[in-house]
């Protein structure tokens, strides 16, 4: 069995991304505007940039951010799939637009359940990375079962959804402990 590569862990067998590919706007988006080119932890760098880009959008209102999250999720599927085919590697570690979609859904879910605050933003980042890296069931099922662009994005969306609920639980626990 070959070395596994995904958006969270770079493998020794993961080929480097030819920078010439980034002349294509879709490919540049797929690597998270370059954040996926980080020499280590590209998924974390992609998640961080994705979260930073989400902040001004969420300040426009939850409805606007929900629409932006839906658009991000839908557009991520073909863009990630196309970049994967160009690289010849399913879910290459440098493809991080799926992290953008996942962390946006994570933040949206967290804000809908708890309201916006900076502790919620920090917890959203933390819990998204936990679920994206650990890939508990059913995140792991989506990671293994689905192929193509949908397969690249699906596990991140599930990690985002579960992470949002974990933020809610974390904030509720802090409220109980504070009382």
Can you characterise this structure?
68% of the residues lie in helices and 0% in strands. It has 179 residues and is mainly α. Helix 4 packs across helix 5 (118-134) and helix 4 (97-114) runs parallel beside helix 7 (148-178). The longest helix is centred in the last third of the chain and has 31 residues, at 148-178. The radius of gyration is 16 Å and the shape is globular. The N and C termini lie far apart (52 Å). Residues 1-12 have low confidence and may be disordered.
What key phrases describe this protein's structure?
179 residues; mainly alpha
Total helical segments: 7
Structural class category: mainly alpha
Main beta sheet: none
Low-confidence stretches: 1-12
Shape: globular
Number of strands: 0
Beta-strand percentage range: under 5%
**CA-atom Rg in angstroms:** 16 Å
What is the element string, with H for helices and E for strands? HHHHHHH
Termini separation:
52 Å
What is the share of helical residues?
55-70%
Write the SSE topology.
Elements: H1 25-30, H2 42-58, H3 62-87, H4 97-114, H5 118-134, H6 139-145, H7 148-178
Describe, in short, the structure shown:
By secondary structure, the protein is mostly helical. It has helices spanning 25-30, 42-58, 62-87, 97-114, 118-134, 139-145, 148-178. The chain is globular, with a radius of gyration of 16 Å.
């Amino acid at each position: 069995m070959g070395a596994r590569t995904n958006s969270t862990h770079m493998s020794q067998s993961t080929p480097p991304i030819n920078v010439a590919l980034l002349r294509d706007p879709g490919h540049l988006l797929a690597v998270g505007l370059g954040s996926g080119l980080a020499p280590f932890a590209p998924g974390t760098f992609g998640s961080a940039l994705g979260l930073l880009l989400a902040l001004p959008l969420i300040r426009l209102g939850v409805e606007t951010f929900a629409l932006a999250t839906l658009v991000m999720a839908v557009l991520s599927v073909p863009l990630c799939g196309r970049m994967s085919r160009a690289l010849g590697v399913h879910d290459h570690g440098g493809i991080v637009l799926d992290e953008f979609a996942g962390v946006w859904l994570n933040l949206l879910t967290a804000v809908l359940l708890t309201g916006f605050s900076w502790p919620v933003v920090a917890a959203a980042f933390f819990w998204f990375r936990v679920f994206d890296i650990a890939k508990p069931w059913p995140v792991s099922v989506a990671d293994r079962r689905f192929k193509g662009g949908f397969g690249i994005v699906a596990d991140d969306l599930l990690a985002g959804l579960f992470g949002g609920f974990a933020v809610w639980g974390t904030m509720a626990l802090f409220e109980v402990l504070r009382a």
